[in-house]
Amino acid sequence: MHRETPVWISSNTTVVEMKQAAITLQRTALCLVIISTFSVVAFAKNSKAITGAPTSQSATSGKNGISVNASDNAKVIVQKIYQTIYMTDPALSKALAMEQAKREQAEQEAGKLTRERDTLASELELAKTYLRIAQDASKQDAGETVKKARQALLVGDVKEAERLLQVDEEQFAAVATRNLRKAAQLARERASLAEGQDTAKALSALRKAAEYEPGNRENWWRLGDILITSGNLADAVKAYERFQALVMDEVRRDPGNSEWQRDLSVSYERIGDVQVAQGDLAGALKSYTDGLNIARQLAGRDPLNAQWATDVVVSLYNLASLAPKGLSSEKAVASLREALDILEKLDKQAKLTHQQQSWLPMVTQRLNELEKSTGKE
Asked: How far apart are CA 16 and CA 11, in angstroms?
């Protein structure tokens, strides 16, 4: 599923700027390595060596598409898609690498830090869109629309590709109800292409996806994220509540499923973000606390899982961000100390991504500021 993501405070320190630049270069290099060195056949033969022992925390495919779970297997799924695109359409795979690098550069310049799983989910959605276009365009009976969409992506004209997908989407939606799932998929693909280019078009596409397939939680999650970006807080919280209701249905059916529990935690976080923007700090305190409690439970189930641990860090930071009006400075300091302790332990174990390493100075800076304000340096 994806995210988008909680916004952490930005820092103007030279260390953070250097790390942000390094992230972009490393991710771009990774994309180029992936699309140029592996084959699907080699991947299949060596998948056990790459992924290790089977785990419940892997990327899975279901009626709502591929869900990115919190483990190294999620990275393997993204890599496999890049490999498949390369084998199907090398030129389009290079266009994808360039578009992904451009988006990551923009995200870094905006000072946003995201959970790794949410970053993977966003990358996966874009890759899935390119893959579907590559595969459909390679067929002998490929339609003119998908061929033109491919050509548009090859020259970096994402807006034109998004427009062409809308043509197909409307045709599927008009034929029969059984095609509404396909229409919803096309609408989400349009949104993936429009995001970062045209927020209004991305919003329109996700509204259509939710209209076509209201039972798909991904539609509501992504709709809520784009509504926040567009400043429509009232509708954003409604979208997140729809997402939360669908996740709760899954949790009731399978209470032990870590992925549903994690999604429930994220739903509380997203609602809390909107409540903060609306000035409802009491509501945000409850939402962030509920999300933190679930994150703690998940981390307790698997203490070695770095993703669950960093989810706790995000929840603690969100909670501390309410100080001093929505949370006492003393409690905020305690939350940040706990978050910093987790990050330092993970850093010593070399379990932080390059992106997450930049959280250390940010949490430290905010902690120092609060300690000064309370006279507890």
From this structure: 7
Residues 255 and 261: their CA atoms lie apart, in Å, by 8
Chain region(s) in the chain for CATH 1.25.40.10: 256-377
Q: Which one, of 255, 304, 256, lies nearest residue 52 by Cα?
A: 304
Outline where the chain has alpha helix (H): 14-37, 40-51, 72-88, 90-109, 116-137, 144-154, 158-175, 180-194, 199-212, 217-230, 233-253, 258-278, 281-301, 306-320, 329-348, 354-357, 359-374
Question: Looking at domain 256-377, does it have CATH number 1.25.40.10?
Answer: yes
Cα 208 from Cα 203, distance rounded (Å): 9
C-alpha to C-alpha distance for 333 and 174, rounded to whole angstroms: 56
Minimal CA–CA distance to 233: which of 186, 197, 182, 284? 284
End-to-end C-alpha distance for the chain, whole angstroms: 41
pLDDT digits (tens, 9 = 90+) for 35-58: 333 333 333 333 322 222 223 333
* Residue of 294, 318, 310, 319 whose CA lies nearest to 344: 310
DSSP for residue 61? E
| Tokens 């409307």 -> residue | 170
CB atoms within 10 A of CB 186: 26
DSSP calls for 116-165: HHHHHHHHHHHHHHHHHHHHHHTSTT--HHHHHHHHHHHTT-HHHHHHHH
Tell me phi and psi for residue 304, to 5 degrees: -90, -5
CB-CB contact of 223 with 240 (8 Å): no
**Contacts with 244 (C-beta within 8 Å, 6 or more apart), sequence order:** 264, 267, 268, 271
- φ, ψ (nearest 5 deg) of residue 161: -65, -40
Residues of the chain with pLDDT under 70: 1-74, 107-118, 176-178, 376-377
Distance (Å) of CA 86 to CA 42, 136, 143, 197, 308:
13, 14, 21, 25, 32
pTM for this one?
0.64
Q: Give pLDDT, residue 112.
A: 56
DSSP state letter for 60: E
